[in-house]
Design goal:
With 253 residues, chain A is mainly alpha-helical. Chain A is built from 10 helices and no strands. The two termini of chain A are 24 Å apart. Classes of the chains: A mainly alpha (253), B alpha/beta (334).
C-alpha cells in the first residue's frame, strides 16, 4: 500500500495540473478576502463590522475557495486514468482495484490539506496587515479564528474526497468536471431557493461544506460544523462506493 | 528467468467471454504457452485476441473458464509487475508526463528503485528521450516505452498485443531480436498479431484464433506440416498436368495460366507424373513459405465446417497431423 501511495503522489507531482490549480485556488481565496474587507461598511453591505468575530471568521474562511479546485483535481486524478488509459498499467500492477481508489482518496486528501494551508497562509498574509492598517485587531485570543482556520483546511481536504468519489462514479472527465461545477455553482443554489425542496438543501454537499467553517452557527440554514464535516465525508465516500459498485469492478476499457 | 522460480507457464482453460449485447468474443478457448518459447497468438481482427489477453491479465472478467500464469490467476499474483509484463495498445500514457516519470510512477508502485526506469529505457533504446514528454513521441517510440514498462519488473512472462503496430522495418527487426533474446533466457513470451508473416520468423509456436475459437495450435513446423509438402509447378500444359494429378486424387490449386500448386505429393512423383503426361516443366520448387495461405484458410471460415475454399480436389484439413514437414528455414529452435 505504501508503494501505491508513493506512486499516486508521483502521478500528482509529475504533471502541471497540481500547481496550476493551486494558483487558481490562491487567486480565488485572495479575491474572497479582499472582497470581504474592501466591501465591509460600504453602503448596501449589512454584514457586521470587521471587528466582529463573525466577519473575521468569514474573511479567513475565504481560504476554503481551494475546496472547489481540489475537488476538480481529485476528479481529474481519477478520470485521467480512464481518459488516457493509464488505468490499464495501474490495474495491471495493482489488480485489487479498491486499493487504488483508497490510495487516491488518501493522497488527494493530503494534497487538499496542502492547498488549504497555502490558502490559509495567504488569507492571513493579506488580511492581518490590512486589518491592522484599519486599526482592527484580530481576535486570536478567542481561539475562534484558529479553529476556523483549522476547519477551513479540514473542509478543503474533504472536498478532495468528494472529487475522487465523483471521478470514481463518472469516468468521463469532461462530464464529471462540468457536471460537478454546474452542481456546486448553480444547481445547489437553485435548490436552496425553491420552496418545498429547500428543506433538503442543508444536507447537500455544498451546504455541508459551508457549514464546516460556520463555527458560530451564524447561518441557521446550515447544519452544525461537525455535522457538516461528517455528512460531507459521507457524500465523498458514498460517491466512491457507488462508483466502485457500478463501474470500477467491471472490465477495464 | 532466475533459477528456482516457478515456471511461467500460461494456461487458458475453456475460457469464454460474452459481452453485453450477446457478442461472444471468446468461445471455449483452451491453450498452453510454455516457458522458453515465443508463442504467436494469431487471428484476424476481431477474432478475440485482445479480449483473451485482457482476461489473462485480469482486466476483463471471463464469462466462464480460467486463465492462469504459473498456476495462479493474474489477480492473485503477489506484485504482478515482477511476474508478468504486459504491452497492450501503446496508448496508455499521460501525454504531459515524461517517459522517465511515467516509468518512475510504476517503479514506486511496485517497490522498485527509481534507477530501474533508466535501465529499462536503455534496454529499449529510449535513453535519449527519457526526459521528453510522451505527447511528442512517435507510435514506434510509444511501443518501445510500453515495452519498457512491461520490462520494469524483469518478469519471467511477457504478454504483448500487436507490438509491431507502428514500428518501422528497423523497429520490427529490433523487436524480433529482443524477443528472441528474452525467450533464450527462458522467459515465456506470448505475442499477438493479425499477420502471420510478421511473426513467422520470431515465433516457435502458434495459437491460431478464428471467431473466438482456437483453430490450430502447435509448432511452426506442425503448421506447415499439417498440409504436407507443397510444390509449385510452372508449365505451359497446366491443364494436362492437373488432369493427370486430379485423376490420382492429388490436391492442387491453379495459381495462374501457367502454374499450379500441388499439395502433399513428393517432388519426384510430380516429376514422374509430368513426364508421363508429356508436360514441359519450366519451374518446379518446394512452396514451403506458404504458411500465410494456411493461416488464411484456417481463419477465413467457421472452424466447425468442412473446408470449402477456392481450391478443388483437395481434401479437408484432418486434425491428426501428418508427420511434421521439416523444411529448411522453418521449425527448430531459432
Amino acid at each position: 500500500m505504501s508503494g501505491l501511495i508513493r506512486a499516486e503522489f508521483r502521478k500528482v507531482l509529475t504533471t502541471k495540473l497540481w500547481w496550476g490549480m493551486l494558483l487558481g485556488s490562491m487567486a480565488l481565496a485572495a479575491l474572497g478576502v479582499i472582497g470581504q474587507i474592501a466591501s465591509n461598511g460600504t453602503s448596501g453591505n449589512d454584514t457586521p463590522g470587521l471587528d466582529t468575530t463573525q466577519t473575521q471568521q468569514s474573511v479567513f474562511s475565504s481560504a476554503g475557495a481551494a475546496g472547489i479546485f481540489i475537488m476538480i483535481v481529485g476528479i481529474i486524478g481519477i478520470t485521467t486514468e480512464y481518459r488516457h488509459f493509464t488505468s490499464r498499467p495501474t490495474f495491471l500492477i495493482e489488480p485489487r482495484r479498491g486499493r487504488v481508489i483508497v490510495a487516491k482518496l488518501l493522497v488527494f486528501a493530503v494534497v487538499g490539506i496542502v492547498y488549504s494551508l497555502v490558502c490559509v497562509a495567504e488569507a492571513i498574509a493579506i488580511a492581518v496587515p490590512w486589518l491592522s492598517l484599519k486599526n482592527v485587531s484580530v481576535g486570536w485570543e478567542s481561539k475562534q479564528i484558529i479553529a476556523v482556520l483549522a476547519l477551513t483546511a479540514l473542509g478543503v481536504a474533504i472536498y478532495a474526497l468528494v472529487g475522487v468519489g465523483i471521478g470514481v462514479l463518472i469516468h468521463n472527465q469532461i462530464a464529471a468536471v462540468i457536471g460537478s461545477l454546474a452542481y456546486f455553482l448553480v444547481i445547489e443554489n437553485l435548490i436552496s431557493i425553491i420552496p418545498g425542496v429547500k428543506v433538503i438543501h442543508k444536507f447537500l454537499p455544498g451546504a455541508t461544506a459551508n457549514a464546516i467553517t460556520d463555527l458560530g452557527h451564524y447561518n441557521h440554514d446550515l447544519l452544525r460544523w461537525w455535522q457538516g464535516a461528517i455528512l460531507l465525508i459521507a457524500w465523498g465516500l458514498f460517491f466512491a462506493v457507488l462508483g466502485w459498485v457500478l463501474t470500477v469492478r467491471s472490465d477495464v476499457p | 528467468m532466475r533459477v528456482g522460480e516457478p515456471p511461467g507457464r500460461i494456461v487458458v482453460a475453456a475460457l469464454s467471454k460474452t459481452f453485453a449485447g450477446g457478442i461472444r468474443a471468446v468461445d471455449n478457448l483452451s491453450f498452453t504457452v510454455e516457458p522458453g518459447s515465443v508463442t504467436g497468438f494469431l487471428g484476424p481482427n476481431g477474432a478475440g485476441k485482445t479480449t483473451t489477453l485482457r482476461m489473462i491479465l485480469g482486466l476483463v472478467r471471463p464469462t466462464s473458464g480460467t486463465a492462469t500464469v504459473g498456476g495462479r490467476r493474474y489477480v492473485a499474483l503477489p506484485n504482478p509487475l515482477r511476474h508478468v509484463g504486459a504491452c497492450l495498445e501503446a496508448s496508455s500514457f499521460y501525454p504531459g508526463r515524461t517517459a522517465r516519470n511515467h516509468l518512475r510512477v510504476y517503479c514506486a508502485h511496485a517497490g522498485l528503485p527509481g534507477k530501474r526506469a533508466a535501465e529499462v529505457l536503455e534496454l529499449v533504446g529510449l535513453s535519449a528521450a527519457g526526459r521528453r514528454r510522451v505527447k511528442g513521441f512517435s507510435l514506434g517510440m510509444r511501443q518501445r516505452l510500453a515495452l519498457a514498462t512491461a520490462m520494469l519488473g524483469d518478469p519471467p512472462v511477457l504478454i504483448m498485443d500487436e507490438p509491431t503496430n507502428g514500428l518501422d522495418p528497423e523497429g520490427i527487426r529490433w523487436l524480433r531480436g529482443f524477443l528472441r533474446e528474452l525467450a533464450g533466457q527462458g522467459r515465456t513470451i506470448l505475442v499477438s498479431s493479425h499477420l502471420l508473416a510478421e511473426v513467422q520468423q520470431t515465433v516457435d509456436r502458434v495459437v491460431i484464433l478464428s471467431a473466438g475459437r482456437c483453430v490450430r495450435q502447435g509448432s511452426m513446423a506442425e503448421l506447415a506440416g499439417g498440409r504436407g509438402p507443397t510444390t509449385l509447378v510452372r508449365t505451359p500444359q497446366v491443364d494436362a498436368l492437373m488432369a493427370v494429378l486430379t485423376s490420382r486424387g492429388v490436391g492442387l490449386t491453379r495459381v495462374d495460366a501457367t502454374a499450379v500448386r500441388i499439395d502433399g505429393l513428393p517432388v519426384p512423383d510430380i516429376g514422374h507424373a509430368a513426364f508421363e503426361a508429356g508436360c514441359e516443366i519450366h519451374e518446379m520448387r518446394a512452396d514451403q513459405a506458404d504458411l500465410e495461405r494456411v493461416f488464411f484458410e484456417l481463419t477465413s471460415q467457421p472452424p466447425s465446417q468442412p473446408h470449402v475454399g477456392p481450391t478443388y480436389g483437395q481434401p479437408p484439413y484432418q486434425p491428426p497431423y501428418q508427420p511434421p514437414y521439416q523444411g529448411p528455414g522453418q521449425g527448430g529452435p531459432w
